[in-house]
């Protein structure tokens, strides 16, 4: 059952039930994302100090195998040192997602500064896309287990 379109302040509910965000809000989101990325990049010189204060993986300590996100700290440190091959070997999916997050944040921030709104993402995935996403996550986890990360 489709919802009727109705205005609620700066948002309009579309037929799929998700709110359509105004261009101003999209620019603010782009600026926020870009700012977060710039702050993270500014913290790169302190990455090793910050990483040393993180706890060990509780899942791995209890179960004995790496969790799906094991190796992310080492992946971040490798990316901070611009060692892309090491980052990919440590956690391939994590390296790709972190790189995409950083690049996307820089693009979003620049777009916001230039007055351009972000393109609103399509939130729903088709069943085949969900299956593909699950397969990528499971394959990455299997890789981490096989490497003993």
Oligomer: single chain
CA(first)-CA(last) distance: 46 Å
Strand percent estimate? 5-15%
The total of beta strands comes to 3
Number of helices: 7
Radius of gyration, rounded?
19 Å
What would you call the shape? globular
Average per-residue pLDDT, rounded, comes to: 86
User: Describe the biggest sheet?
Assistant: 3 strands, antiparallel
SSE succession = EEEHHHHHHH
User: Strands of the largest sheet, in order across it?
Assistant: 1-2-3
Question: Summary?
Answer:
The chain has 149 residues and is mainly α. Helix content is 61%, strand content 5%. The protein has one domain (23-147).
Can you walk me through this structure?
The chain has one domain (23-147). The longest helix is centred in the C-terminal third of the chain and has 22 residues, at 92-113. The chain has helices spanning 23-42, 47-52, 58-63, 72-80, 84-90, 92-113, 127-147; strands at 6-8, 11-13, 19-20. With 149 residues, the chain is mainly alpha-helical. α1 packs across α6 (92-113) and α4 runs antiparallel to α5 (84-90). A 3-stranded antiparallel beta sheet has the order 1-2-3, with no helix packed on it. The N and C termini lie far apart (46 Å). The chain is built from 7 helices and 3 strands, in the order βββααααααα. The radius of gyration is 19 Å and the shape is globular. Helix content is 61%, strand content 5%.
Sequence-ordered SSE layout with sheet pairings:
Blueprint (H helix, E strand, L loop, with lengths): L5 E3 L2 E3 L5 E2 L2 H20 L4 H6 L5 H6 L8 H9 L3 H7 L1 H22 L13 H21 L2
Antiparallel strand pairs: 1-2, 2-3
